[in-house]
Amino acid sequence: xxxxxxxxxxxxxxxxxxxxxxxxxxxxxxxxxxxxxxxxxxxxxxxxxxxxxxxxxxxxxxxxxxxxxxxxxxxxxxxxxxxxxxxxxxxxxxxxxxxxxxxxxxxxxxxxxxxxxxxxxxxxxxxxxxxxxxxxxxxxxxxxxxxxxxxxxxxxxxxxxxxxxxxxxxxxxxxxxxxxxxxxxxxxxxxxxxxxxxxxxxxxxxxxxxxxxxxxxxxxxxxxxxxxxxxxxxxxxxxxxxxxxxxxxxxxxxxxxxxxxxxxxxxxxxxxxxxxxxxxxxxxxxxxxxxxxxxxxxxxxxxxxxxxxxxxxxxxxxxxxxxxxxxxxxxxxxxxxxxxxxxxxxxxxxxxxxxxxxxxxxxxxxxxxxxxxxxxxxxxxxxxxxxxxxxxxxxxxxxxxxxxxxxxxxxxxxxxxxxxxxxxxxxxxxxxxxxxxxxxxxxxx
Amino acid sequence: xxxxxxxxxxxxxxxxxxxxxxxxxxxxxxxxxxxxxxxxxxxxxxxxxxxxxxxxxxxxxxxxxxxxxxxxxxxxxxxxxxxxxxxxxxxxxxxxxxxxxxxxxxxxxxxxxxxxxxxxxxxxxxxxxxxxxxxxxxxxxxxxxxxxxxxxxxxxxxxxxxxxxxxxxxxxxxxxxxxxxxxxxxxxxxxxxxxxxxxxxxxxxxxxxxxxxxxxxxxxxxxxxxxxxxxxxxxxxxxxxxxxxxxxxxxxxxxxxxxxxxxxxxxxxxxxxxxxxxxxxxxxxxxxxxxxxxxxxxxxxxxxxxxxxxxxxxxxxxxxxxxxxxxxxxxxxxxxxxxxxxxxxxxxxxxxxxxxxxxxxxxxxxxxxxxxxxx
Lengths: 445, 375
Description:
Shape of chain B: globular
Distance between the termini of chain A: 72 Å
Largest sheet of chain B: 2 strands, antiparallel
Largest sheet of chain A: 7 strands, mixed
Oligomer: heterodimer
């Protein structure tokens, strides 16, 4: 080998090895790992959500120099909604601490035990493992705002109100079309329990990833089962496909009720006219009429520092990202009030999330009035008590058709506790009680 | 000069039949193994041991299994994901319900269960070949995944269908504190679960993969391997010289499924920690088939190279893009660029060497043999 070749191979080796050397964390910066997905069949959700979250962090850094002077930094790692890649990304970034947002129930399930062992908090806002609501068994996981089961009870309440009372549910038929993944399967037990309680029948229809082939499913639903309502637990390209197939077999769109991961602009616009009248749940509205969104448009996208194409600012997924950005920043702020304005460890951040209390007054200060509902987290309740709103697509935009609908938490709590207790006994976890990890676990709610 | 056989005389049949007849190869393998067993656990961090190396080893084992079936015995299969799922859920249920069994034995038992399932789904291979067989093995993929999705017992009635690996030790619960083989407790390390160290997980995976790879290497240069290759090259001719297609093909399915099953068990217990059927879908089967094709059909070392390429290249590209990404391109552009680069790399390698990395490796060795005086 000539010396030139030697040099070349040395350079090549250096280039190959360089990316694996992690840069050190700087003082007074709060690192947030961003397990994004901007590619693949679920890119619409992933890019919107993380675009919104990073936009809000950028706004904080630009406007206030971070949270109390501590800049928020992040590194993106593309998962493509693939669980293996999600684990790899988590392992790569975990040394730098922070709060993890997996935005995938599958990745959340894979990370729960790892994050618990590594002492890194997970916020799974509106997705993830439902029984993690019992913070006494899952200290490190926060399915904030509303979990899937809460949302499902709100959906049944909504159907009841549409039909003219909960007693009218008796004898009704509901079809549950779900994405065949841990995300899709999460509500099967609660739907079965509710069917028994209210006397309706429910049939579950799995749709395999990525959900482009639903012809047979919809034919079966419309011709054989003939349900009164269809609950759509879709994600990504599965949603417009479902709406189109429903229109083909003549199932009315206004009797399809989507989960909040099926209720964004990206889910209905590709379906065209077939989507008109389709109803979905949500825990926040879309639109740009909020001061915080205006500020993002002005101070982030106006300075060409956006993390998403500016047209998508104010869409459902972007607003959801801003929502989770606010929660994350407020959790950091809460933890800073106790531990000081500096880079916080995983344990300190966890305490911040567990003692989060975002009041209506605080929401107004943040410029997010109407965007988010008040949130109060405790050791007992890792959900925080959010409500659900229903919205209908009028062919042009989402219109809210109900006020805030509360979940049936009295019915859910025993089920959540039973499920968490089963997990605790399987994993030999002693549920927290009394004062534990800086929070009071004896208090209920 | 360094890699030359001139002067190497084999004076006995044993020497001629040795697994690595050339001393340079022998020493090379020993050096690589020493490095993998001793040096890597000392110098690598958690990130390298877990998602990089353990993942690579698990998929290399699955690719090796498929390579025995497709590359050596010529039976095209798309059921790899399904067989990995059988191994994963079998290991999970064995470990969960009978904690007395040592975890390593669980892997072997799960492999045997998968082998039996593989024999059942290999039956169509007696009548159909090539692409048609690939379609028939698709049935196993869909059926097995459906089974684990819909029969709650396999996932211990978990509502989301997630099988989460319980913490288990190398030698089983009888060798833990309070068991009858308590004296073994000091060496009875925790292998699975979140509290097991990444070093243990890596070393257990590595040991299983090395033993199975050496077994495979020996198998393919014995009568079994020759029978497989005869069936692959021309089944009628093979039958005429006395190789029974029934036994040979089903044995190939059994052995291949055994390897895939163990890989599935390792995936759950030493790599990810839990699994649902999403991890074993059709995409997984294709991914492993691509590893075999890009690595080289009919090559043990090719399986490792193919797995390294398919598993590690995207990770590597993502690391590079995170490094150069700051302030250059938008996140979306970088993510798409990764896919473009990865796709181009696949096309490039298949044009440069359609027979895969194993062939490139062979050509490289040939060049080294005559270096520095090529003719």
